[in-house]
């Protein structure tokens, strides 16, 4: 058994200061991912700083139309928030497709953004894994790599897919991650927050070691747009995506005025398909347009022995999502 110290913070500044003064500290929010990692002996914090009493559990509407979400807002509360259901359906649907009711009641917005990969080679503590043990190799590349491994954004160092549904929706919407550290506040564009593995797969986030996520601020909704989320998986509940698609579309008649598209299950990070968005804008909302955009979104994908099927599956997810959004 590994021992650790515990500290409950009463303010954001206190939480950041306590964390900065300790070696090997972790912030404790809902704990649905962190405690798993501790039990598996993947993460070994010497101090857990409890941030549950910092008042970061509110959703605020800003004057410019954006939505500011406290890091401690639970997935369940966010999914059912009236403004989210009305203007960000893609986010509500993504959240409700993830995990289980019990976990959604406990898991937090900030924790979900920081969610670790579900690659079994990362989690078993023994296999070669550059993300867990830099320089040891990647067992997934030559091993069984079907369900939780990516075809976009991979490298010869790591092919683990990012697991979050919520983050796919936020990537499609556009957002800013607001953080606080000893040097003060700063904002990180959501698309820059999660890092590609490249040659340093152990660096997963554009977050300094002593910074705390305080909020995630969503971009203002696109006027007149509709959005939705589609998750394709092996079973209908409590399962990570094989491929998922979060889409936002605004039409002028039958012409696509604006579009946002992000993918899950197929990328090493929440995957914003910006070139595919450009292929959609100004085009008729037809099957041919959707199929072309789907091909563009998956160009450059690299399949491995067991997961090459994710390339056509990702394309199918995009076409189905866009078809559902523009039908009728």
Structure overview:
The protein is 30% helix and 21% strand. It has 328 residues and is α+β, with helices and mostly antiparallel strands. Among the domains are: 1-52, Uridine Diphospho-n-acetylenolpyruvylglucosamine Reductase, domain 2 (2-Layer Sandwich), CATH 3.30.43; 225-326, CO dehydrogenase flavoprotein, C-terminal domain (Enolase-like, domain 1), CATH 3.30.390. A five-stranded antiparallel beta sheet has the order 4-5-8-6-7. A four-stranded antiparallel beta sheet has the order 9-10-11-12, sandwiched between helices. A three-stranded parallel beta sheet has the order 1-3-2, covered by helices on one side. A hairpin with a 2-residue loop joins strand 10 (243-252) and strand 11 (255-264). The radius of gyration is 20 Å and the shape is globular. The mean pLDDT is 97.
Structural class of the secondary elements? alpha+beta
Which CATH-level-2 architecture of the domain at 225-326? Answer: 2-Layer Sandwich
**Can you tell me the CATH superfamily of the domain at 225-326?**
CO dehydrogenase flavoprotein, C-terminal domain
Overall pLDDT metric: 97
How large a portion of the residues is in β-strands, by DSSP E? 15-25%
Q: Count helical runs.
A: 14
User: What is the β-strand count?
Assistant: 12
User: Largest sheet at a glance?
Assistant: 5 strands, antiparallel
Q: Which regions have little confidence, pLDDT < 50, spanning 5+ residues?
A: none
* CATH class categorisation of the domain at 225-326: Alpha Beta
| Strand arrangement across the biggest beta sheet | 4-5-8-6-7
Rg from C-alpha positions?
A: 20 Å
CATH topology of the domain at 225-326: Enolase-like, domain 1
Q: Helicity level, as a percent range? A: 25-40%
Which word captures the global form?
globular
Helix-strand string: EHEHEEEHHHHHHHHEEHEEEEEHHH
Distance between the termini: 59 Å
Protein name: Xanthine dehydrogenase YagS FAD-binding subunit
GO molecular function, one term: oxidoreductase activity
Keywords: FAD, Flavoprotein
Domain FAD-binding PCMH-type: 1-223
């Amino acid at each position: 058994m590994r021992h650790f110290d515990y500290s409950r913070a009463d303010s954001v500044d206190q939480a950041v200061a306590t964390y900065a003064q300790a070696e090997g500290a972790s912030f404790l929010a809902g704990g649905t991912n962190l405690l798993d990692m501790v039990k598996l002996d993947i993460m070994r914090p010497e101090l857990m700083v409890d941030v549950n009493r910092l008042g970061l559990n509110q959703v605020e509407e800003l004057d410019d139309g954006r939505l500011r979400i406290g890091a401690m807002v639970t997935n369940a509360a966010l999914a059912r928030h009236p403004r989210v259901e009305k203007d960000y359906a893609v986010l509500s649907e993504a959240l409700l497709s993830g995990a289980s009711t019990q976990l959604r009641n406990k898991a937090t917005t900030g924790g979900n953004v920081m969610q670790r990969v579900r690659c079994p080679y990362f989690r078993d503590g023994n296999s070669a894994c550059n993300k867990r043990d830099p320089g040891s190799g990647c067992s997934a590349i030559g091993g069984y790599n079907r369900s939780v491994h990516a075809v976009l954004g991979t490298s010869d160092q790591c092919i683990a897919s990012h697991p979050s549904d919520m983050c796919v929706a936020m990537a499609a919407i556009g957002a800013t991650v607001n953080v606080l550290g000893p040097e003060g506040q700063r904002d990180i564009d959501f698309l820059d927050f999660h890092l590609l593995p490249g040659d340093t797969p152990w660096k997963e986030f554009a977050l300094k070691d002593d910074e705390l996520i305080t909020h995630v601020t969503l971009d203002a909704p696109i006027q007149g747009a509709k959005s939705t989320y589609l998750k394709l998986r092996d079973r209908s509940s409590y399962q990570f995506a094989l491929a998922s698609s979060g889409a936002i579309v605004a039409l002028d008649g039958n012409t696509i005025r604006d579009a946002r598209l992000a993918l899950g299950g197929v990328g090493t990070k929440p995957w914003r398909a910006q070139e595919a968005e450009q292929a959609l804008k100004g085009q008729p909302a037809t099957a041919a347009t959707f199929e072309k955009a789907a091909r563009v979104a998956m160009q450059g994908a690299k399949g491995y022995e067991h997961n090459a099927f994710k390339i056509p599956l990702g394309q199918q997810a995009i076409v189905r999502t866009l078809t559902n959004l523009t039908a009728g």
